[in-house]
Design a protein that fits this description.
This protein is of the alpha+beta class. It has helices at residues 6-12, 22-32, 44-54, 126-136, 138-144, 191-200; strands spanning 35-38, 55-57, 69-71, 91-94, 106-113, 117-118, 121-125, 150-152, 158-160, 163-167, 170-173, 181-183, 202-205, 212-216, 220-224, 227-228, 232-240, 271-272. It is globular and about 45 Å long.
């Protein structure tokens, strides 16, 4: 099967935030696919307005008072653990807020200014990774689902399974693999298989200014290639507003049908966050 193009990934998940009943479509699409792409978000107030319609926007360590975080190279955060998003370094696929007791359910990221070079978004469907491991390394899935499989964050951190089962047959993903991640000795032998599965299911999603994606943070991992120049993005984190129905986690066995696109290589010891 030929690989889908990055533009196809954006087009196939596109929803117009200006159309009536967009919340109902976004709710259905998030439940089924966990990902929505959007266009026409050129101004900060548009991003914030849409975020407030879809989620209860959470203030973050790095956010402005209104809850939006300006993602850019500050020139002050290079090589600081846990701050790679505010540098020009590459970000490897991760769950946003993985060290929090309860990570935010939704993440909206809108590109305000493209980088001079690099800076492409990269997404990984956690359901595809789960299905991949279940087929080739079922023991890995079992171990990664243990309650204390991972310890994320500084100090005492937060213990969490990588694949959690909150109820029924639905599954949630929580992951980081940077210097702020530690794993139970039973998990360590399976980390190479986990990394390889993630690499097999990376999708490139290069955005233009005004384009955005909204993802279910309990299903999709997100990343970014290293960049040069003044790349600026706006990010909102939060939980669904009342009326935006979104079942916890994802069901097994129906990951994104398109073949992964060839995302720009995430090389070296890039930061997992």
């Amino acid at each position: 099967m030929p690989n889908s193009s990055p533009s196809a990934l954006f087009r196939d998940h596109l929803a117009d935030p200006r159309r009536p009943a967009v919340r109902a479509r976004i709710s259905a699409q998030l439940t089924e696919q966990g990902l929505v792409t959007m266009d026409g978000l050129e101004r900060r107030e548009q991003v914030l307005g849409l975020a407030r319609v879809l989620m209860k926007v959470n203030r973050h360590r790095d956010s402005d008072p209104d809850g939006l975080t300006v993602i850019r190279d500050t020139g002050r955060h290079q090589d600081r653990p846990g701050f790679a998003g505010l540098s020009s370094a590459e970000l490897f696929p991760h769950t946003e807020g993985s060290a929090l007791p309860v990570p935010p359910r939704l993440m909206l990221l809108a590109l305000a200014r493209a980088a001079d070079s690099g800076g492409a978004c990269v997404l990984v469907d956690g359901r595809a990774v789960y299905d991949d491991l279940l087929a080739g390394h079922p023991d890995a899935v079992e171990v990664l689902a243990e309650d204390r499989a991972g310890l994320f964050g500084t100090g005492s951190g937060t213990f969490s399974p990588v694949f959690a089962h909150p109820g029924g047959e639905r599954i949630q993903v929580r992951l980081r693999l940077d210097e702020l991640a530690r794993f139970h000795p039973r998990v360590e032998p399976y980390l190479p298989a986990l990394r390889a599965a993630i690499d097999r299911h990376r999708h490139a999603l290069p955005l233009r200014a005004g384009q955005a994606y909204l993802l279910d943070n309990y299903r999709w991992l997100h990343a970014r290639t290293a960049f040069g120049g003044g790349r600026v993005a706006y990010r909102a984190l939060g939980d669904p507003q009342v009326g935006l129905t979104l079942p916890a986690g994802f069901s097994v066995g129906s990951a994104l049908a398109a073949e992964p696109t060839e995302a720009p290589a995430l090389v070296g010891g890039g930061a997992w966050r």
